[in-house]
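Researcher: Please generate the 3D structure of the following complex. Treat every line as part of one assembly.
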Amino acid sequence: MASSVTPSIEAGVAPRRRAGGRRPRLDAARILPPIVSVLAVLALFELLPRVGIVSARQLPPSSEIVDTFISQLSTEAFWRDIWSTLQGWALGLGIAIAIAVPLGLALGSTPLLHRALRFVIEFLRPIPSVALIPLVVLLYGTGLTSKVFLAAFGATWPLLIQVIYGVQDVDPVATDTGRMFGLGRFQRMRRITLPSLLPYAATGLRIAATTSLLLTVTGELVIGAPGLGHSIDLARTSAATTLMYALILATGLVGIVINSAFRRMERRTLRWHPSQREVAA
Amino acid sequence: MIARALRSRLGLILEVTVPLAIVAAWWIASAGSTSFFFPPLSEILDSFRETWLFSHVASDVVPSMLRLAAGFAIAIAIAVPLGVLLSQSKLLWRAAEPIVEFLRALPGPALIPLGIVLIGIGSGMKIALIAFGCLFPILLTTMDGVASIDPVLRDTVRVLRLSRRDRIMRVIVPAALPQIFAGLRTSLALGLIMVVISEMVASENGVGYFVLSAQRSFDLPAMWAGTLMIGLLGYALSGLLTLVERRLLRWHRASKASALSS
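Model: Done. Output below.
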């Protein structure tokens, strides 16, 4: 169990990219491969429909998709979709934080409470929140509330679990030492619990952010709440295939921005932590 | 000492009674419920018995689980070898990184409309999407696992001049296995989400289809029973994975334990 929460595991970064604190140099070996591979993929998706291996109605050439994407950038509807999706994502994540952090702190520091609720949490956690979609639609309709509910429900668990583990992982020797030096409860919290909790919380936060986006888009797609997911499906049903691909591209880019922002924050706040020191030896 | 024993006994009692108390509270609170949305628990359980013991198991649970198994297996078959391959060469990873980053940041359900356009609404589309959703956590944890292999082990393998095949099959993959399992756990949860959603959007059977059509025909007890069933499936699958993990990683736990005791 412990191995599944070590921050480095789910960090999803190929380690040792910047070995030994060497400043990344702008050399060809670093810059060329990603550019070449992206161009190659674009070329492949340009050729497939042009040569006729895939029908252009199903998969338009990549140049057309990029064109449509760029022209979307100047439409109001596109930015309204982005805004709706980000709004659902942020509210879902915010609610998840507001629930998971205090609850995780309480459960992590009170063993008896944790035992009492452990089974309940272990039972609720693997339930895919999408199973609640039909109920949520009946209760809250097809608007913002529904997708925020789904996103918050889904994003709460990973963060809660990480916070609980983080609090429990505090080195008892450190706590005892702090107590011996006469640190009060608050000081111990600030100087001992918080630093050892941070890597877990940061990982939990990153996973929660990804989950919240996933469920926001799902809510839009299945429930029909306004946003990128809904517009993607709308483009499909109205046979605007190129637009559909352009919007999927946009959704992926939103995902990348959220992902890398949280990963950067994780790295920045934890520069001192062993999990972030890349090559120790 | 006595206080500690008492505490642990109290803990055990609480662990058993609190969940029971919650179910009991739900039962009592909903007993006389006339609310359309929250039917009495007894009614939900009746509906659960009618649908899931066992008339709808073959028609809905089995197709869903087969799709999940197929998608999950395809994801493992692609992600583990690809992860090992990409962690062998820095150049290769640099080339693959932007594409992997884009695809993994893309929320899987956004691809359902694409799947419908490209493949249609059959099982093939669902399996492809499930496989896609499961792929990236496994790929990334495999790479992470390979990267975190003990340098001493790495050097030993080099000194022993193992063949490439032996090196990968006997050293690299087993050493990365604990991390790979962390990825499998994430993937399984994502896979179940993809199963349910793809069945909600376009299907004629499956648990996702079942809950949505129950809701559309305003059969609330059946909808609750379906939701409960999906929850139970999630719980059972995650328990199953834990069992497999314990079995496959027995050597890992054993070696860790001996390292600790020495």
